[in-house]
Structures are given as structure tokens and as C-alpha cells.
């Protein structure tokens, strides 16, 4: 299962056989995982249609999907850790800090490209949302560098008069 944010807990609803999520911060509950928006059900121990091979294949697919989901979640977490640095960036596109941040964001995008979705629409959607989030961070970084660059140009041109 994907990690939960601080203050969250997962419990089993005996009447439906589904897991639900408790947010102790807001004292609310919901059926979907707070980060991945997936609905969880306990693992089935019985064979699917009495066929052990199908049950094993289904379990392998679940493991692949969970792994892919965790990979996307991890990339998003690492990208979000860069947000404060990006928001406070005051340099140009030639600065080492800019180049480091841009390279890191591009590397994270490549990691997302490598995540297999195994035909699962929810993984594809998660991956797409993560790519868009990283693209927003790249756009913010580029805008801050352009803003700083134009500020330096206007300061330099007024000093030369």
C-alpha cells in the first residue's frame, strides 16, 4: 500500500469489506487513498474462478501496479521537495543552482517516462498528473530566471546612462 500522509490511518469496514481512510487532522473519513485516490480491498485468498494460475497472475498484476504507483508517488514527493528552492530562486539561467534544479526536474520527468502503466488507466492518469506538476515547476523556475535576468538588464542599462 502507498504511504499515508501524517495524521492519516487506514481501517477496514467490516460491512463492505473495503478499506477506508481516516484523517485525524480534520476528523473525516473517505473511501479513496488521500494521495493516489485508489480504493483498497483486502487481498483475496481464494482462487479466481477456481484457477490458481489466474490468481497468481492477478497477484503479479497487483504487485506491478502497486510498484508503479509507488514509483510515481516517490517522484512526485521528490519534485515537491524542490518547490521551496524554486520559489526562492533569484538567479539567471546560467547560474549553477538553476542548472542543477533544471537537471533534477528533467531527470524526474525521465523517471516518470520509465514507469510502466501495465494498461492501467489510474497509473497512466497518475503519471500524467505527475508530469504536469513537474512541468509547472519547470515553468516557475524558468519564469523566475527570466524575471531576474530582465531585472539585471534594466538595472545595468540605467547604470550606463
TrEMBL record:
Gene3D superfamilies linked to this entry: 2.20.70.10, BAG domain
InterPro entries xrefs: BAG_chaperone_regulator (IPR039773), BAG_dom_sf (IPR036533), BAG_domain (IPR003103), WW_dom (IPR001202), WW_dom_sf (IPR036020)
Domain of life: Eukaryota
UniProt keyword terms in alphabetical order: Chaperone
Record GO terms (molecular function): adenyl-nucleotide exchange factor activity; protein-folding chaperone binding
An annotated GO cellular component: cytosol
PROSITE patterns, A to Z: BAG, WW_DOMAIN_2
Sequence ranges assigned to domain BAG in this UniProt record: 68-145
Annotated GO biological process: protein stabilization
Record-annotated WW domain positions: 2-36
Keyword Plastid: no
Official protein name in the record: WW domain-containing protein
Organism: Calicophoron daubneyi (Rumen fluke)
